[in-house]
Amino acid sequence: MTYNKKIYPVVLCAGVGKRMRSNFPKVLHFVLDKPMLWWVLRSFRGLIDSEPIVVVGKNKDLVSQYFADEKISYVVQNEPLGTAHALLCAYESLKVLSEEDYFLVMPGDMPLIKQNTIKNLCEMSELNNDITFITCNVDDPKGYGRIVRDKNNNFLRIIEEKDAKNDELRINEINVGIYLIKIALLKLLYNIENVNAQGEYYLTDLLEIALKNGHKIGTMEIFDQKEILGVNSQKDLLEAQGVAKRSVIEVHLNNGVQIFDINSTWIGPEVSISSGAKIMPSSVIYGKSKIGSSTIGPFSNIENSTIGDNCNVFYSVIRNSIIGSNVSVGPFSHIREQTVIYDNIRIGNFVELKKTQIESNSKVSHLSYLGDTTVGSNVNIGAGTITCNYDGFDKHRTTIEDDVFVGSDSILVAPVKLSKGSMIAAGSVITRDVPEDSLGIGRASQVNKAGWVKVFKSMKTKKKK
Q: Residue ranges of region N-acetyltransferase (predicted)?
């Protein structure tokens, strides 16, 4: 989206987050399957062309490592001296700026903020306010800075809760912590003092200073109290989880997906599910998964995988894989990374697949492990079959061509190839390639010893006497 003025998004993430009681950076705590910072970045993604500036503290390496694939400019605030100081660090990091452009300033711990809210705030740049910030009237303003207005309802200042007097504590209009600030005003950051209970440089003081210097201050009120939830504790995080979870599920319900139990179902924000799909209880679908008109669950976990239409996945785990249409998976199957399963396939109970490709109309029905394997079409893998793909040093591939029948309890020692139409006798250990239309047998010949049992039992009975 294009605005008349250039807007630079700045996300403040340098806070220590002591109330989280965690050694992990607060903004990397997950809401569903994404860290809080991801949700904040998403709120303006597609609205603003400028590369986001993320102000971090000593946690820079952890944050930048997670977002390594995204274009983000990181600025380090070495000491947590407050939000005004954090913004000053961002301001000083940019060499060339037009004073008529804007900074969009957001906290990194507000994962529920909606993109439409940020869009509306960015459009306020057309009003040519020097500063516009978001407010909200809430039922319980505890923990937030209060908006102090004059008798004519004009903005006067923001008072932080720890510095507020009793009458100010009764104010229900709070500062959300999201600002659109004209860059010309950022020079006033140098005038902010840390004379307060925390000994920090408050960004909220910039508004009062700007007002005294005759600058135009505007507010934008929003009405969804859940949207502005700031996560400062594990309890807050749990609340944010619940709101985000319900919001994502409602999108899929409205798109025609049948979800049988919203309390036990978890779906990530990047998941795509086709109309007509059925999501059974206790199912988790995360990452960039794409689900066709299929039945998932109960008790199934899908991550970063594509599943076609008319599939049934129950009591199973699928990760980083592609499943075609008309495929049955489970119960208790584990489809691991880089597995591709084509159409009309049965993957049965207690089957594990890794880096395996299976062509259409094949079956792996019971108690099998196939790793680093290529399976053709119309293949039957008998119960208890495993591919020995690792020799202690390297991984090797097994190739099973079309129309092959592998008997139960077979061991295929890679690298090995079973050519088209071949058969493997049950209980075989196959170490060499099997030619086309041939029977591979790799087991000792059976010997029947007549009367041996009677002699054996007699000997054992005599020893006990």
A: 256-465
**Helix (H, G, I), strand (E, B), or coil: what is residue 168?**
helix
Q: What is the pTM of this model?
A: 0.90
Q: How many domains does the chain have?
A: 2
Annotated binding site: 26, 77, 82-83, 109, 145, 160, 175, 232, 336, 354, 369, 380, 383, 389-390, 408, 426, 443
CATH of the domain at 25: 3.90.550.10
Annotated binding site for UDP-N-acetyl-alpha-D-glucosamine: 26, 77, 82-83, 145, 160, 175, 232, 336, 354, 369, 380
Q: Are residues 307 and 423 in the same domain?
A: yes
Q: Residue 210's domain spans which residues?
A: 7-228
- Please state the residue numbers annotated as binding site for acetyl-CoA: 383, 389-390, 408, 426, 443
For CA atoms 147, 150, 156, 160, the dihedral sign is: negative
Side chain identity at residue 166, one-letter code:
N
Give the domain CATH number at 377.
2.160.10.10
Residue with tokens 């119309």: 378
Residue 422's SS3 state is coil
User: Residue 347: which of 374, 361, 327 has the closest Cα?
Assistant: 327
pLDDT in tens, 8-47: 999 999 877 788 898 889 999 999 999 999 999 999 999 9
Beta strand segments in 94-208, E? 102-107, 131-137, 146-149, 155-159, 173-182
Alpha helices by DSSP H, 52-186: 60-66, 83-93, 115-123, 166-169
Binding site membership for Mg(2+): which residues?
109, 232
In a domain, 287, yes or no: yes
Residues classed as catalytic: 366
Residues 357 and 287 in one domain: yes
